[in-house]
């Protein structure tokens, strides 16, 4: 017989404090929803636009059956001073942080030769440098939360674009793709840096999930129906796909998973031939 003493609690987040950047819509809102429904005590969400943050907080706090609460803090996580202000505000409410989800991201598409420098800077500042500083400045609070048997968690939302060359040409997204490769590798570096401090770090790489960020590219590539046909699972991602994957990485059951990239794309990155 095999004894699995933790079995009933693999995904139980009771008492956990979490923060999700870009939590006002899209994948970040799905993730914040999953954390609250998983039992988290406090879920901070942040994004630049205050009305969007307030609206998401109202939606989250109206979720049926939750015991925790969502708290919104507006800020730009591409800017180090805003990240520091975020840390300071979180500290006034909670003394620890168990789960940090670096989800906010930006993309830019256009032809290679005429790419404006500001576009590369915007993408790298948010998707790479901002994530580095976010984790760095939250490390003391993450360390307070973590213990050898229950490490705190960092999850970086990367992309399948970080392990393939998805789009070149007129609508090329070269710097986005490069920034996501860096984000995935940042998680691996953090896994080794922070593991001894009782903090794990992993990345999660989604394929296409309809959202404000993805919708323009989805249309350029022929629309949702076209993309569904080229996916081995014959569909795009849905909110439950991302919620379940995050719960696996941040729940008690995932506590020995460190430095992996979990791809959630229905297998689309592998499908080079026509189905
Ligand atoms: N959707 C997909 O198909 C897909 C696929 C692969 C990877 N991803 C990744 O998943 C993550 C979320 O994407 P999404 O599709 O959910 O995008 P989205 O719907 O556009 O949401 C982006 C969120 O990030 C916030 N945000 C943007 N810039 C910010 C900044 N500088 N500081 C703080 N918050 C900021 C936005 O709010 P404000 O505008 O108010 O700041 C919003 O809450 C990104 O990292 C993206 O690269 C998405």
Description:
Residues 76-103 form a coiled coil. InterPro entries: NAD(P)-bd_dom_sf, Sc_DH/Rdtase_CS, SDR_fam, Sec_Metab_Biosynth_SDR. Belongs to the short-chain dehydrogenases/reductases (SDR) family. This is NAD(P)-binding protein. The protein has a 7-stranded parallel sheet, sandwiched between helices. The protein contains 8 helices and 7 strands. The protein is globular. It is α/β, with parallel strands linked by helices and 275 residues long. The protein has helices spanning 26-37, 50-61, 80-93, 117-145, 174-194, 212-220, 224-229, 239-250; strands at residues 17-21, 42-47, 69-74, 99-102, 152-157, 199-206, 261-264. The chain has a single domain (13-209, 240-266), classed as 3-Layer(aba) Sandwich (Rossmann fold). Helix 1 (26-37) crosses helix 8 (239-250) and helix 3 runs parallel beside helix 4. The structure holds NADP nicotinamide-adenine-dinucleotide phosphate. Residues 21-22, 24-28, 46-49, 52, 76-78, 103-106, 126, 157, 159, 206, 208-209, 211-214 line the site of NADP nicotinamide-adenine-dinucleotide phosphate.
């Amino acid at each position: 017989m095999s004894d699995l003493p933790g079995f009933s609690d693999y995904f139980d987040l009771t008492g956990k404090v979490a923060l999700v950047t870009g939590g006002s819509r899209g994948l970040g809102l799905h993730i914040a929803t999953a954390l609250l429904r998983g039992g988290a005590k406090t879920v901070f969400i942040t994004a630049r636009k205050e009305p969007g943050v307030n609206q998401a907080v109202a939606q989250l706090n109206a979720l049926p059956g939750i015991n925790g609460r969502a708290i919104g803090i507006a800020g730009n996580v591409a800017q180090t001073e805003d990240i520091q202000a975020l840390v300071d505000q979180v500290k006034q409410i909670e003394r620890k942080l168990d789960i940090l989800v670096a989800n906010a991201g930006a993309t830019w598409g256009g032809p290679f030769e005429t790419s404006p420098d500001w576009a590369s800077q915007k993408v790298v500042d948010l998707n790479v440098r901002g994530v580095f500083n976010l984790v760095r400045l939250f490390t003391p609070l993450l360390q307070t939360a973590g213990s050898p048997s229950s490490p705190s968690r960092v999850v970086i939302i990367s992309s399948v674009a970080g392990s393939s060359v998805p789009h070149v040409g007129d609508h090329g997204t070269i710097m986005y793709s490069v920034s996501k490769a860096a984000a995935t590798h940042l998680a691996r570096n953090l896994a080794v840096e922070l593991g001894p401090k009782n903090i794990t770090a992993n990345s999660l790489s989604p394929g296409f999930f309809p959202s404000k960020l993805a919708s323009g590219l989805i249309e350029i590539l022929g629309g949702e129906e076209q993309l569904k046909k080229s996916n081995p699972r014959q569909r795009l991602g849905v909110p439950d796909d991302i919620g379940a994957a995050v719960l696996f990485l941040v729940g008690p059951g995932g506590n020995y998973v460190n430095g992996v990239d979990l791809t959630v794309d229905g297998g689309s990155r592998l499908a080079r031939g026509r189905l």
